[in-house]
Amino acid sequence: MLDAPETILSHHALLDLYDCDNRALLDDLEGIRDLFHRTARGLKCTIVNELFHRFTPQGVSGVVVIAESHLSVHTWPELGYAAIDLYTCGDPALIDLMPDMLVEALGAGRKEYHKLPRGHVDRPPDFRHQDRIRLSMKGLSDDQKWLTDQWADQILWTIAVDNIVLDVQSEYQRIQVVDTPHLGRILVLDGNIQCAETDEAGYHEMIVHTGLCRIGASSPRGGRKVLVIGGGDGGAAREALRHPDVVQVDLVDIDQAVIDACRDYMPRVWHHPDRTRKIEDDPRFSIHIRDGLEYLKERGAMAEADKYDLIVVDGSDPVGPGVALYTPAFYQAVYDALKDGGATCVQGGSFWYLPEVFTTVYTGLSDIFEHVAPFECFTAVYPGGVWNLQLGIKGPFDPDAVDDARVQKLGALHWYSTGRHRAAFSLPPIAERLLQKVPPPLEEVQEQLEKVSLTES
Ligand code: SAM
Hints:
By secondary structure, the chain is α+β, with helices and mostly antiparallel strands. 26% of the residues lie in helices and 33% in strands.
C-alpha cells in the first residue's frame, strides 16, 4: 500500500479590522448580509445557508454557511471594529483575496490577518487512479465514489463523486444530490441525472429563451405569462424571470421534495437571475405542487388574458410520474392554456440516444400544434451532450426570426444567443428523416426506459 501522503484538509483565516470609518454599514443588517454574500461568491464559494442578527442597541453577527464550510462576522460599530473568520476546504489562494475585499468595503484603517492550516490528515491514495473500479449499472457505486447513468442499453456514463449531499426517497422518486469534482453538484432522480450546476444553462436557457425571443411570440400589453411544468430544479423558472416583460411565472411540480432539495442544496441552479434576492421573494414567481395535467385541468377553460405565452414542459423522461407529460390529453391541455401565438417548449428526447422519445414527442405535438420545431440544446450530463427540445407553436414560426433586441436585454447568458437560436433549429438530415417515421406507442417507450431506470417496478 502506498504511504498515504499527509494533506492539509482546510484553512482558517482570521481577519480583524480596526478603525472602520463605514460605521453605518457595521450596524446595517441588510448591508452586512449583502456584503458577506458578495464576498462568499467573490471567493467562488457555494452558499448553502445563512443567519444574520442585529443586536440592540448595536452590532451585527452573521454566518454564511458555504459548501466549503463558513464565513462569519461580528461587528462593534461603536468601536469601528469587525471580527471576521473564513473556514474553508476550498482553494487556499482564493482566501487571501478576502482581506482587501472587506478592508475596502468597511473602510478599515488597520487590519490583522492570520491564516492557519487545519486538518493534517493521511488521505488514502486518490482512488481515482485505481486501475479497477466497481460500478453499478445505474446510480451510485457501492463505495459511493462513482455515479453512473445508463444512456441506453449497455452504454454507461460515469462520473467521480466527492460526497453525497442528499439521498432521500420522496412519495414519487428517489432524490439524490451529489458533489462531483468536475461538474459541481448534480441532481439525480431515480438514478437518472437531471442537471449539473456547471452545465445546466445550456439546457435551461434554450428551453425558455427560444420560445420567448422568437419574433411573433405573443407579447401582450399586460406582460407575458410563463408556466413551467416539472422543472423542480428552478432553472427554467429562473430563466423566465430574466425577461423584464414577464409578469408571471408559475412553477408546477408534482414533488415538493425536489423543490426543497434544489432550494437547499443546488443554490447555483435554484437562484434568482439577478442574485440580489431569493427567487421565492420575486412576486412574479409562484410554486404549485401538482401533477402538471391535473393543474391544467383544474385551471379549466381560461380567459384569453389568463392564458400563457410560453409553457415549458421540463419533466423527467416518460418514466414514473413523468409519463403523464407525454400524452395527447396533456398536449391538448397545454395547447388550450396557451394564447394565440404562444408556444410550448418540451424536453424532447434525443434523435441519437432516445429516438423513441424524440419521435413520440414530435408526433404527439404535431397532432395538436400548428407548427412543431425540434432543436438542439447542450448539457454535458445528457447522453452525447447534444439533447433535443421541441417547440410547439400556436401559429407560424421562422427559426431565423429572432428578436435580437430582446436577447441583448437578457444580460450575460452562458449558452443562448441569437446565433445559437438560429443554429439550433437546423437539424441534421438523419434527424429529419427520423421524424418522418411513425414512433412506437408511448407504452413501449415507457417499458424500454423503465428497464434502465431505478423506478421501483
Ligand atoms: N431537465 C430534466 C430532464 O430533462 O429530465 C428534468 C428536470 S426536473 C427536476 C424534472 C421534474 O419533473 C421533477 O422535479 C419531477 O418531480 C417533475 N415531474 C415529473 N412528473 C411530473 C408531473 N406529472 N407533473 C409535474 N411535475 C412532474
